[in-house]
Design goal:
By secondary structure, the chain is of the alpha/beta class. Helix 5 runs parallel beside helix 14, helix 7 crosses helix 9 and helix 7 packs across helix 10. The protein is built from 14 helices and six strands. It has one domain: SGNH hydrolase (Rossmann fold). The strands form two sheets. Strands 2-1-3-4 form a four-stranded parallel beta sheet. It starts with 5 loop residues before the first strand and ends with a helix. It is globular and about 60 Å long.
Length: 283
């Protein structure tokens, strides 16, 4: 008998399964509209194109359900498409409250950690943070001139939010305050609830930061690396979704549906992720 009970899956739209319904070929899916206009969430949902049958197909085919079915158990995934580190915390706590000792594992898929940051001139967390940081990096690298930068709104917004800090200093500060704090929280909550934790490396292009966690916190680094699920594909191992998809152009929705212009995981990647999770849990 398996010692695996309920599994919490915490992540963002990559875990939720955005776009998987495109594989269903259900008559209610407006393929002609998507071919003309692309597949952009939340637009397709706000237009009423996403039906309950589509959601059920997503639930049945995303990697969380495949893993849960393998161990004859249930998967806990956020109801809404999307997610941030803060929302993952809420989801994990809610799931623990609902299911208690009937849970045994937490699978965490890392996402854009800046989604919980709020700029002084923004009302919503995550709005414009990455854009502001990327623009500052372009300025410091000389891609845009001093005059171009100083005459833009980015310059004032940067000073209002970060003063004279460099992009590297801000990036380090935000990563430490978001990711390291989150990982410390995961260590505590998993230990206090006797839950096994496994990590899926981020899809964002700052995945390299997770390879050097020891420069921030050696205990956190050991915890992360011990529980990281590496993806095996074509005899190679990859430490993150970003690393895998950057090297292999066959794992995105756009690779199967060119008209979608959507880079979320396709059904092939969901199957690959599930297979590697199952192998790690079996160990």
């Amino acid at each position: 008998m398996s010692n695996v009970r309920g599994i919490i899956f915490a992540g963002c739209s990559f875990t939720w399964g955005e776009g998987l319904e495109l594989y269903s070929n259900y008559p209610s899916i407006p393929y002609e509209y998507y071919i003309q206009n692309g597949y952009h969430w939340p637009h397709v949902n706000e237009m009423g194109f996403v039906k309950k049958s589509h959601l059920e197909y997503i639930k049945a085919n995303r990697f969380s359900r495949i893993v849960a079915n393998r161990f004859d158990t249930f998967d806990c995934v956020q109801d809404a498409n999307g997610g941030s580190l803060g929302q993952m915390k809420e989801h994990i706590l809610k799931s623990i409250k609902l299911y208690g000792n009937d849970l045994s594992h937490i699978i965490i898929q890392f996402t854009e950690h800046l989604r919980d940051c709020t700029l002084k001139d923004s009302k919503h967390p995550g709005d414009g943070v990455r854009e502001l940081l990327d623009n500052r990096i372009e300025y410091e690298r000389g891609i845009i001139t001093i005059d171009e930068y100083e005459s833009s709104s980015y310059s004032k917004r940067w000073k209002d939010n970060f003063g004279e800090m460099s992009s590297l200093e801000v990036d380090d500060f935000l990563f430490k305050s978001n990711v390291i704090t989150f990982l410390n929280w995961v260590m505590d909550i998993s230990k206090s609830n006797n839950l096994v934790v496994k990590f899926i490396g981020t899809w964002t292009n700052d995945s390299y930061r997770y390879d050097t966690l020891d420069k921030y916190d050696i205990i956190v680094s050991n915890f992360y690396n011990k529980n990281l699920i590496k993806f095996k594909f074509n005899k190679k191992y990859y430490r993150s979704i970003f690393e895998l998809t950057s090297s292999n152009k066959s794992f995105r929705l756009v690779d199967d549906f060119e008209w979608s212009n959507n880079e979320h995981p396709n059904i092939k990647l969901h199957n690959l992720i599930s297979n590697n999770i199952i192998k790690q849990i079996d160990k």
